[in-house]
Amino acid sequence: MPTKCKLNIAILFGGRSAEHEVSLQSAKNVISALDKTKYNPIPIFIDKSGRWFLNDKSGDKIALLPQSNGEITNLAHPQKKQKINAVFPILHGPFGEDGTVQGLLKLTNVPFVGASVLGSAVGMDKDVMKRLLRDADIPIGKFLVFKKTDKINFEKNVKRLGLPLFIKPANLGSSVGISKVKNKNEFTKAIAYAFKYDTKILIEEFINGREIECSVLGNDKPIASIPGEIIPSAEFYSYDAKYIDDKGARLEVPAKLINATRVKIQKLAVKAFQTLCCEGMGRVDFFLKKNGQIFVNEINTIPGFTAISMYPRLWAESGLNYTKLTDKLIQLAIDRFIKENKLKTSR
Asked: What is the tens place of the pLDDT at every residue in 136-161?
């Protein structure tokens, strides 16, 4: 394809959340994987205070404005114009994965990869997510939700959920702010720790099972990848195990599953994806008990794209390499954009 026909793809990365550093790793891999004969990557870095820069923090400050149709506004040099054809957000956590950036991109009138506003918001809020999954008869573990103004009693929670239990912020990912609790002292510390990251927290029962993950891809007719398994070497799959300690967990791809269990997990992954109004991509995480029971833990609407991340690795095992995967995600974004722009917006 001639250079002039290349699509300019803005890669949004960094961001204001506690998962900022994860985003930096993911973005490098996405940029590297893009087919350079078809796409011209335009890195857009968002620092921890929310400022947008072209390329990195040393670049010009830029903005995307409503109804700009993908034209970048260069705040340092207003005469400079650059058109983007689609956006690939690699922003994990709040202010990027929760529908905020997706709302801006819709106002900007530009295609973007991944779930739209509703799917992103629902996928980020574990409380709302779990209630929707439960109403769709998708098996989930028992959980309770609390806000800072609530009285949170250790004994009452143990009576309902047992020990050990997990305490986590409602709106965060990558295991940030999560604690596994075995006694009252740990409980009190874990509550305070989770509230550092969110105004709403979840307390969940501990499910003793294998940690299985399955990637989903598509818009109206999503498909599921081969499942993989996380085998943590510590208490649970922590932030360090995911991104810092290369011995923190072992990834088994594909997971060793009987065919019936594999098929059931794939069907549940697609059902969860659709129930939560997701599009483009998502990674659904499961617990598999020894007796064969399967529980959905959560969905991640902008999964990690680091060198060891499960989402691209599962698709590679399923026959879709990193370059083909990024290409498919961009095409899905453009297809949705075209479809939505055909809708009437007035009488």
From this structure: 999 999 999 999 999 999 999 999 99
Catalytic, 298? Answer: yes
172 confidence band (pLDDT: 50, 70, 90): confident
List the one residue out of 129, 271, 134, 278 whose CA is nearest residue 202.
129
Q: Is 262 a catalytic residue?
A: no
Long-range contacts of 236-244 (CB under 8 A, 24+ apart): 236/166, 236/175, 236/178, 236/180, 237/175, 237/211, 238/175, 238/178, 239/174, 239/175, 239/176, 241/175, 242/22, 242/174, 242/175, 242/304, 243/21, 243/22, 243/25, 243/174, 243/304, 243/306
The residue among 344, 346, 336 whose CA lies nearest residue 105 is: 336
Given 1.10.10.10, 3.65.10.10, 3.30.1490.20, 3.40.50.1390, which CATH number is that of 143-205?
3.30.1490.20
Specify whether 283 is catalytic: yes
322 is an active site residue: no
The CA dihedral of 154, 155, 159, 160, to the nearest 10 degrees, is -30
Active site residue 318: no
Catalytic residue, candidates 70, 218, 228, 304: 304
Q: Give pLDDT tens digits for 211-266.
A: 999 999 999 999 999 999 999 876 655 555 555 555 668 899 999 999 999 999 99
Maximum C-alpha span of the chain? 67
The architecture that CATH gives domain 122-139+209-335 is: 2-Layer Sandwich (3.30)
Binned at pLDDT 50, 70 and 90, residue 206 comes out as: very high
Out of 17, 23, 171, 300, which one is annotated catalytic?
300
> Could you name the CATH architecture of 3-112?
3-Layer(aba) Sandwich (3.40)
pTM score, whole prediction: 0.93
Choosing from 17, 26, 120, 174, the catalytic residue is: 174
Q: Is 85 a catalytic residue?
A: no
Residue 1 has pLDDT above 50, yes or no: no
